[in-house]
Inverse folding.
């Protein structure tokens, strides 16, 4: 079924072949998240109305799903663990975004202002209450560590760049992107997904990988261009060598001809 969905997806989107694996990975992640969200919503609707049947799911199949939700031990354990995590300050990252993903919050923020929000802005919006206080101490702590590390990296980069105006040189300083800094300080490679960023972190990751792929493609293009240039030069040198051989043979012929004339 997943292959069928991905085939339909490919009919509406195009990309370079070298990105196939990464795009399939993102498709699986996004699709899984969307499907979980849909099923959670339908289970919630069913808990409020026992007669509820989703319009896009045949009733016999819906009854099978309800039986699975109620009896499958693996699913029940997974659901119970998530319930505990959501209620625990020490568990998974909590946020105030409700059913709206952090990625969607970021897109709405950009649409409202016309400017792409920073990682810090999105995280702050989704982890603070209406009174601007943090949802928990952990959320406050991790953003503090992130900002501290960014300041440290900026100071180090600035100390290595002693020429020019400070403000004018900010853009040219060699400072890691926010997503990389966040993973270094907060996630620390303990999880595949960036802690506390949800789908927004996946969006940042895919964009970063796209930039890396683009850079690699550009580097490969430069290598190919340089190789082509050397091939052209080698061809030109071969032609010069051939011309020199012709001239050398011509000179040898003239010398032999002059020698015969002298003997006569």
């Amino acid at each position: 079924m997943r292959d069928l969905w991905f085939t339909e997806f490919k009919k509406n989107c195009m990309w370079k072949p070298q990105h196939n694996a990464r795009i399939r990975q993102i498709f699986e992640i996004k699709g899984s998240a969307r499907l979980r969200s849909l099923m959670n919503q339908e289970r919630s609707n069913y808990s409020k109305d026992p007669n509820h049947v989703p319009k896009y799911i045949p009733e016999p199949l819906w009854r099978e799903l309800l039986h699975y939700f109620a009896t499958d031990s693996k699913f029940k354990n997974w659901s119970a663990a998530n319930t505990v995590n959501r209620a625990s300050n020490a568990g998974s990252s909590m946020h105030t975004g409700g059913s709206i993903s952090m990625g969607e919050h970021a897109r709405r923020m950009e649409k409202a202002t016309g400017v792409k929000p920073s990682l810090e802005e999105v995280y702050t919006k989704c982890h603070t209450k209406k009174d601007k206080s943090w949802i928990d101490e952990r959320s406050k702590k991790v953003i503090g560590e992130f900002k501290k590390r960014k300041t440290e990296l900026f100071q180090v980069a600035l100390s290595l760049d002693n020429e020019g105006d400070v403000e004018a040189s900010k853009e040219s300083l060699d400072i890691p992107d926010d997503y990389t800094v966040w993973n270094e300080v907060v996630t620390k490679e303990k999880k595949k997904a960036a802690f506390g960023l949800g789908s927004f972190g996946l969006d940042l990751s895919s964009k970063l990988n796209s930039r890396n792929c683009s850079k690699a493609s550009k580097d490969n293009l430069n290598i190919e261009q340089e190789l082509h240039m050397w091939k052209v030069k080698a061809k030109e040198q071969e032609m010069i060598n051939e011309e020199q051989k012709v001239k050398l043979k011509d000179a040898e012929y003239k010398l032999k001809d002059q020698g015969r004339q002298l003997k006569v």
Notes: DSSP finds ten helices and no strands in the chain.
